[in-house]
Amino acid sequence: MSVAKEVKRVTTRTLQEMKQKGERIAMLTAYDFSLARLVDTAGIDVILVGDSASNVMAGHETTLPITLDQMIYHASSVVRGCGRALVVVDLPFGTYQGNSKGALNSAIRIMKESGAHAVKLEGGAEVLDSVERILTAGIPVMGHLGLTPQSIYKFGTYVVRAKEQEEAERLRRDAKLLEEAGCFALVLEKIPAALAAEVARSVRIPVIGIGAGGGVDGQVLVLHDMLGINKEFNPRFLRRYADLHGVITEAVSGYVRDVRSRDFPNAEEQY
Q: Do 140 and 260 have their domain in common?
């Protein structure tokens, strides 16, 4: 009789050990049970329940409109589909900026109501109080620097960040601050590859890049982008591993055709 192999859960310690060994960390977003289960089974290390759900699931222009309740709903669905991956959930806009007590309450709700394993928030020195307060409750925190989509109206554009010396130096300082505060990992988004590699070498915690080159400890992409479901988003850093837009469109068109021609259901597809 065959015995099912026990699946070992990825933890924050696992990621730290992967960095020490030079093993690359693979991270993707997911927002629902079915896709999370597929991604988890395929061997992903970290699933990010990103506030990008605001864009790809709800159709908003930015990540700002999504609420804490909505993030908890998506996170709960993902957690139920995962047996291996570490599940990290974005704290949505307005739940942690300028209010460390509110940040702690938001993080506690995510952990208690969804069963997720960690939270992520954007920013450096300006959100340090919130990071430290969340950590006092024993909740793991992942940082996020560089292009921070929740600040899009401040930036006014999605261009590469930290190209100028002053902003690059601030990013270096913020990375150190987040490490010293106790963050277990850091996302760097859309910054020069050389700077990202330098930061990854300078900190002991894993650094995950998106549009930050190959010199970091791991990579993250939005699932709907890399699967080719979303065709409107075409940044340089995106590699599409499938064309599900074409596959799904063809499948649905075929279904419509067969229903209208009365080919579906046939004699073998009914009782």
A: no
113 as an active site residue: the answer is: no
Same domain, 230 and 250: no
Name the token pair of 217: 């400890």
Same domain, 271 and 154: no
Q: Which two tokens stand for residue 226?
A: 């890399």
**Inter-CA distances, 103 with 61, 67, 89, 139, Å:** 24, 13, 13, 11
pTM listed for this prediction: 0.94
User: From first to last of its 271 residues, what are the pLDDT tens digits of the chain?
Assistant: 554 567 799 999 999 999 999 999 999 999 999 999 999 999 999 999 999 999 999 999 999 999 999 999 999 999 999 999 999 999 999 999 999 999 999 999 999 999 999 999 999 999 999 999 999 999 999 999 999 888 766 766 678 898 899 999 999 999 999 999 999 999 999 999 999 999 999 999 999 999 999 999 999 999 999 999 998 888 999 999 999 999 999 999 999 999 999 999 999 999 9
Q: What are phi and psi of 167, to 5 degrees?
A: -70, -35
Select which of 126, 180, 189, 198 is catalytic. Answer: 189
Q: Is residue 76 part of a domain?
A: yes
Q: How many domains does the chain have?
A: 2
Query: Bridge-partner residues for 27, per DSSP?
Result: 46, 220
Q: Say which CATH number the domain at 141 has.
A: 3.20.20.60
Print the domain residue range for 256.
Answer: 243-271
